[in-house]
Amino acid sequence: MLNPLITKLSCLYGLEPADYSGLRFGEAHLAAPHQEILSDGQIVSHAGLLLSGVACRYKAIGDGRRAIIAFLLPGDFTNQQMPERQRLDFGVAALTACEYANVPLAAWRDFNRQTRLSHALSLCTMTDMAIQRAWLANISQRPADRRLANLFCELRYRLALVGQADDHSFRLPLIQQDLADALGLSTVHVNRVMQHIKELGLIRIRDRVILIGDLARLEKFAEFDPSYLHLEGTVPPARVSLGSYPDVRSAGPMALNT
Amino acid sequence: MPRFFFDFVQADQRTPDSEGVEFADVEEAYLEVFRTAQEMWSELLKQRRDPHLCSFEVRNHTGDILLVFPFREVVDCCTDRAGMRAS
Asked: What ipTM was reported for this prediction?
């Protein structure tokens, strides 16, 4: 069973086993839904990798609400290690049951001694920043229905990179409050635009699975162009059927090199 | 938490809500529907649709209507406040 980071790096940047043989993480930790993984303002001296579930980076805003500034999917770093000690300017919280591993500073430095791995990790950082730019444009300029559709397209594409989505469907275990906090909309408004996208025949929802009739039509409506999500390489995301999701939860820290 | 359903009514056209949203109580649902009407106001205008003709009908899980929220309420409350300042 492969670690989702390796799945992603292999898919996006063609990394081979020799390139990531030195990739080691600390033991896996569990977080319950809504549990805080890192607090805003906390001083950290490690990076963190999400192994399973969905988490978010967030910032608290005035009246007790929170703004979700990024969704984190399996294979994403919760935070990356730059200097030796870093004061976080955001918090990280689990949205579903999550499994994550910390990456100690020494291990992070080891990764970056390996040329191809280091290059791939730099591209991950750049993609992270590209996603933030895409969110800024999405939230500030698009009407609510296209804004939600655009987020669905992004999540579907990113989940496909770790083998958890295909062209026709993906599991979205988020509640409407999570989507509202990410899109800068009220929950009832999210509910309303969700109904609207369904009325347009772009998606159907069944047991928290988003079913897509025509992906090209959905992406056109959402004004979604995935080129910012794969900065280098032209390898398309792995296509798997809904029934064959790899069970990332069983990928323990020692299973990374298998 | 109880689930509330928000049917959107525009002139005489009704779009039922089949998903619903959970809130602690009907007061919380009211406050959220108020925010939604504020947000949707400008989007409706951009679509050349009159927000005054729109409302939400909030139902419980058995389908009973708990409250009707006409969008004009978000403007009416501004008028009231201006009136208060003038007096």
From this structure: 0.89
